[in-house]
Amino acid sequence: MDQNFQNLLKKYAELAVKVGLNLQPGQKLILQHLRNGGVPIETAPFIRELVASAYRAGSPLVDVQWRDDEVNLIRLREAPRDSFGEYASWRAQGVLEVIENGGAMFTISAIDPDLLAGQDPKVLDEQQRTFLENWKPISVHIGKNTMNWTVVSIPVEGWARKIFPDLPPEEQMPALWEAIFKICRVHEDDPVAAWETHLTNLKKRADYLNAKAYRELHYTAPGTDLRIGLPEGHIWRSAGFETRGGIPFTANIPTEEVFTLPDRHHISGTVRSTRPLVYTGNVIDNFSLTFKEGKVVDFSAEQGEKVLENLLNTDEGASMLGEVALVPDSSPISQSGLLFYNTLLDENASCHLALGGAYRFSLEDGENMSQEDFASHGGNTSLVHSDFMVGSGELDVDGVLEDGTVESVLRSGEWAF
Questions:
Q1: Rounded CA gap, 240 and 251, in Å?
Q2: What is the full DSSP assignment across 264-308?
Q3: CA angle 277, 262, 296 (to 5 degrees)
Q4: Residue among 195, 279, 274, 277 nearest 238 (CA)
Q5: Is this prediction's pTM over 0.70?
Q6: Cα(272)–Cα(281) distance, integer angstroms
Q7: How confident is the model at residue 71 (pLDDT cuts 50, 70, 90)?
Q8: If you ran DSSP here, which 8-state letter would residue 7 be given?
Q9: What is the pLDDT of residues 294-327, one digit of tens each?
């Protein structure tokens, strides 16, 4: 392995452990996948560096949940059609045990967008629903900030092939690694210091919006005219969090967003996507959603419309919004000119919204509310939380103050303050 690449891999792993997790001495760590509970074996070279970094940080035990996506593909092809309600529950129970005993969770996003193309959408939907139901107790911990966790992206061959189809096969993975190193600031002499500065700047944006306390945002762009109510007590946040035990951590690397929760009952109008959404291994592209009184009442998609329908029908909250996030069009990911087909990366190239559950820490005292109280304050609950991109250089966003005054928040995709 090239020594320069090995050094960058080590810096990326240290960034994930020190800035992402801020792993503390004595904390156990469990590694798993963003969507399916296991780390693809293709990512082993990076995972080994991360495990070494975690032990250097003082972890007494680092456990990796491995998986082979080809094995899952075999299941989708060969298993009985009525068997996709089955799940290896020990996976979720193992993660939950680590979390409830003060440990941390490292999550990767490593997805071949085309791997599951052509598979039965109903089967994929049932498999995903089963995973989410088993994962629900862990999602509750995430929503309440009871642990430090982070998610980063790791290249796999199918993903690299999707993004760089015109490169020779031997150049595709290096090209994707280089793109990720660049947007994650790994090339900086001191990536940790660079990230500390970046997170400080994001917090300033969030602080400004919190001081404004807008009651509504108005989005306008080609195909989009959407009004999003913001509940009283909403909190704008960046990805720099703190656990209830006082451990600062960064949930996403990379991150360029500030976000909050909408009032799930006060969303109206139409919004059009600006980048594809990959869900259950399938691409949903060029889609449009129309909302009335907070709920999707009409939708269309040029690609993946049935997958989008299944997503919206996951449960009652899946057809409502749980997050509104602002990202300038000049973000490093947008300026890369690449379409990553990976939500973690593409969402940080663009303003985005999320169908499904809201994060309780985006509402004052939300972590301590019952589900009924959270809902009465405008918070949405769902098994899913699926970000989709709506931003571009043509998006304008206005903020409406309590007295009706309208102020510019974004103009042509850029901050207006």
A1: 7
A2: TT-EEEEEE-SS-EEETTEEEEEEEEEEETTEEEEEEEEE-HHHH
A3: 55
A4: 195
A5: yes
A6: 21
A7: very high
A8: H
A9: 999 999 999 999 999 999 999 999 999 999 999 9
Same domain, 149 and 227: no
User: Are 165 and 309 members of one domain?
Assistant: no
Section 26-31 average pLDDT: 98
341 & 398 share domain: yes
Domain that holds residue 43: 3-183
- Together in a domain, 147 and 226: no
Q: Does residue 105 form part of some domain? A: yes
CA 36, CA 253: separation in Å to the nearest integer? 19
Distance CA 345, CA 343 (A): 5
Q: Is residue 63 part of a domain?
A: yes
Tell me the C-alpha distance between 98 and 289, whole Å. Answer: 39
Angle at 204 between CA 202 and CA 207, to 5 degrees: 115
Q: Number of folded domains in the chain?
A: 2
Secondary structure element (H or E) that encloses residue 386, with its range: strand 385-389
> What gap in Å lies between CA 33 and CA 37, rounded to an integer?
5
The amino acid present at 21, given as its one-letter code, is L
Q: How wide is the angle at C-alpha 88 spanned by C-alphas 83 and 89, nearest 5°? A: 120
Same domain, 102 and 234: no
Q: Is residue 127 part of a domain?
A: yes
